[in-house]
Amino acid sequence: MRAAFPDLERSRLPAETHRWRRAHAVVGDVAAALIIVAFAFAPFASTTPRGVVDLAILLAPAVLLPFRRRWPIPVLAACILLYAAAVVNGLVPPGIVVGAAIAMFGVANRMGRRRSIIVTASAIGAVVGLTLLAALGDVGDPRVVQFAITIAFFAAAGDATRSRREYIAAMVERAERAERTREAEAQRRVSEERLRIARDLHDVVAHQISVISLNAGVASSSLTSRPERAEEALGTIRVAARTVLGEIGDLLAMLRADGDETNAAPQQGLDALDALVAEFAAAGLDVRVRIEGDVDGLPATADVVAYRVIQEGLTNALKHGAEHRAHVLVAVSARAVEVVVANPVRVLAPDRSDPDETGGYGLLGLRERVTAVRGTLEAGPSAGGFRLSASIPLSTETEPRPAEVHS
Q1: I need a surface site. Which of 30, 136, 189, 321 has the fewest CB within 10 A?
Q2: CA–CA separation, 287 vs 278, rounded Å?
């Protein structure tokens, strides 16, 4: 398809296309030369050459036309001058008019419409005026109309060819732009899917791994002094490991499923809050929960995000908190659900005020979740500890507000 566009870089075209275009150009030049020679030797009184000069004038367009692709306007002007010279010598040669018409096709094919119209009008005016001069002002001479129509027809053909080429080039450019847009959209969706998988994977394993790590330390320290305590910790580790393996299996099943059909269990919401608190209580974290309002009527999206906020807050409290206790507040209003998780923390260095600054992605993934539902997220030190709070709107019709994590 690119062979139809002469404006493209030649280096981008295959060698076969170059050869085809050169052969096509040679055939066109030979055909134009044969037509001009045939008219030069045609047995018409007004075109029969009377000497070498007349013959040279009549045959000169055949030599000039191969240069029309590089210099279309100069070749057209030269053909008009040759026609004027022929008229001065008493000839009215249609062959030169045909050469001028072919040059006119090159002008209209390579230049804009406005410029080609001006050149066409000038060429027609020159040829018609010279023809009338040769016919001694006889306006009824049919050659006047014939020559004008010939040049106008070739100009219209050149303009149509140029318009078609530009139309095809625009369609190709539009198709290429659409292809680039599809590729960019595909890359964006892949990136979003990777982030979603990363968030789900973190939500699945983060707090269970924290439970395993904490109880592994308890079991190691009390293995000889308090065997019963170590046995209890190992039992908790076994349950947490079984749970995380099951959840990872559900996640892999969802990723391997074809199409939109998945066998993964639905994401948990605040109806699983008691089970979540029980898990952390088994891991040694004393969790106090206060609920204000009706959580049963929450939209599914807000319900899941609120559960994930609590899960991440309790996981951080278990990993980084002090005194093994945390407080959870869930307040439901007509416009939003507010979730607050607070816990005491160990004394941190002045430059380490955020317990999640050690390279984890928990708060980052949580921020993305809250942003997706147009909520706000704040995390940072508060009086007596660390505070994680989120405001999740119950309707997404409001203007989006970027969620921020403050340290």
Answers
A1: 136
A2: 9
Tokens describing residue 32: 């134009």
The residue written with tokens 């410029």 in the block is: 115
- Is there a contact between 86 and 46 (Cβ–Cβ < 8 Å)? no
Cα separation, 67 vs 71, in Å, equals: 6
Place of tokens 């009824």: 140
Q: List beta partners, residue 328.
A: 289, 341
CA atoms within 13 A on the CB side of 223: 7
Nearest to 26 by CA among 59, 65, 53, 57: 65
Instruction: Give Cβ neighbours of residue 147 (< 8 Å, ≥ 6 apart).
Output: 94, 97, 127, 128, 131
CB hemisphere CA count around 275 (13 angstroms): 8
Residue that is written with structure tokens 């406005």 in the block = 114
Give every CB contact of residue 152 below 8 A, 6+ residues apart in sequence. Answer: 120, 124
Amino acid occupying residue 39 = F
Each residue's pLDDT expressed in tens, for the chain with a length of 407 residues: 444 444 444 444 456 666 766 776 677 777 777 877 777 676 654 556 667 777 787 788 877 888 887 888 888 888 888 888 877 777 767 788 888 888 888 888 888 888 888 888 888 888 888 777 766 555 556 777 788 888 888 888 888 988 898 899 899 889 888 888 888 887 888 777 777 777 777 766 776 777 787 778 778 887 778 888 788 878 878 877 887 787 777 777 767 766 555 444 557 788 888 888 888 887 778 899 999 988 888 888 888 889 889 988 888 888 888 878 899 999 998 889 999 999 988 765 444 444 444 445 677 778 888 888 888 999 888 877 889 999 999 875 444 444 444 43
User: Which 3 state secondary structure label does DSSP give 381?
Assistant: strand
Amino acid at 346: R
Q: Are strands 385-393 and 325-332 parallel, antiparallel or unpaired?
A: unpaired
- List Cβ neighbours of 117 (8 Å cut-off, separation of 6 or more): none
Residue whose entry in the numeric block shows the structure tokens 């000038």: 122
Q: How far apart are CA 361 and CA 210, in angstroms?
A: 14
Instruction: Report CA 120 to chain centroid distance, whole Å.
Output: 43
Helix, strand, or coil here: 386?
strand
* Whole-angstrom distance, CA of residue 222 vs CA of residue 229: 6
Counted residue by residue, the chain has a size of 407
Q: Is the dihedral of CA 55, 56, 61, 63 positive or negative?
A: positive
